[in-house]
Structure formats: structure tokens, C-alpha cells
Design goal:
By secondary structure, the protein is α+β, with helices and mostly antiparallel strands. The chain has one domain: Alpha-Beta Plaits, CATH 3.30.70.330. It is built from four helices and six strands, in the order H-E-H-E-H-E-E-E-E-H. The strands form two sheets. Strands 1-2-6-3 form a four-stranded antiparallel beta sheet. A two-stranded antiparallel sheet has the order 4-5. Strand 4 and strand 5 form a beta hairpin. It starts with 6 loop residues before the first helix and ends with a helix.
Amino acid sequence: MSNPNSPYDIIRTPVITEKAGDAKDNLNKVTFLVNPRVGKIAIRKAIESVFGVTVEKVNLLNQKGKRKKLGRYEGKRPDRKKAIVTLKEGDNIEVFDQV
């Protein structure tokens, strides 16, 4: 499968944690789980088009899935990619304010 075309295929879900909340309040940074096959430019365009904000910077993290055991069975959680997006001063995404 090639790169997704729709912005809704690129952005999977917002990350709602205490650390992400502190970054939102203090540094105007929001965190999303994104499709692992896309790059910074596609993520920037998707967030700007979906939420109507101006993105200043995008940082990416690739997280390897942990190995887990249940009795004699072993499995692995899926790998995931996080995007930490710095918004222009004064811009806001309402999803994070409702938490």
C-alpha cells in the first residue's frame, strides 16, 4: 500500500496522557499517533487541513512494540509512530481542551 491520500488516513488518534497535556499547556505542542508510512510534510498538511491551525514544527518518534507473554504463548504489540506537533502561538485544537 502506498501513502494514504486522505488526511483522516494519516492522523489516527490524539495521545491523551499527562506528559502530552503538560506539553500542550506549557509549550503549545500536541501529540498524535499517525500512519507509520508518512513523513513530516504529509503530517503537517493533514493537521493544517483537518484542524485549521498553523503548524510550526513536526517531530516524529518510532516506537517498537513490546514483546508480551501469556503463559507459553508469546506475542508482540504493534509498532507505532508518534508525531509531536508544535502549533503557532495562539492556535488551538479543541480535542485536547475537552479532556
